[in-house]
Design a protein that fits this description.
Length: 120
């Protein structure tokens, strides 16, 4: 499940993920919000907090993520993930090959720094 943080504003979208991300999360929450931001501001800044309860993606949600990311690879100004899992570093390095904006990983203890970075 995905939640949009109250700290989201303008072209900044701050998300909190818990349990498993689903196709429904992408189609009903994430993709419509990102399309609106891109339409209104040209580029999006996205921060996703993968908390302790995060269990990954359903296969269809992972496909939604990859397809949207590739279709909009020039539409992200900044992207950040808050997570202390090692595999996230590797995933971001791979993602950086496909997205033109800046990409950064922050540990949970750096949450305030991550929010400041994504908004700056």
């Amino acid at each position: 499940m995905i939640h949009i943080s109250d700290q989201s504003e303008g072209n900044v979208l701050i998300l909190e993920a818990e349990s498993k991300l689903t196709d429904q999360d992408y189609k009903e929450v994430l993709i419509p919000r990102l399309e609106a931001i891109i339409s209104e501001h040209g580029k999006a800044r996205v921060l996703i907090d993968l908390g302790d309860e995060f269990k990954g993606w359903e296969p269809k949600a992972a496909w939604d993520d990859a397809r949207f990311g590739l279709a909009h690879r020039k539409d992200f100004e900044k992207m950040a993930v808050i997570c202390d899992r090692r595999w996230v570093d590797w995933a971001l390095k791979i993602g950086a090959l496909f997205i033109e904006g800046e990409i950064k990983n922050f540990s949970p203890s750096q949450r305030a720094e991550a929010i400041n970075w994504i908004k700056a």
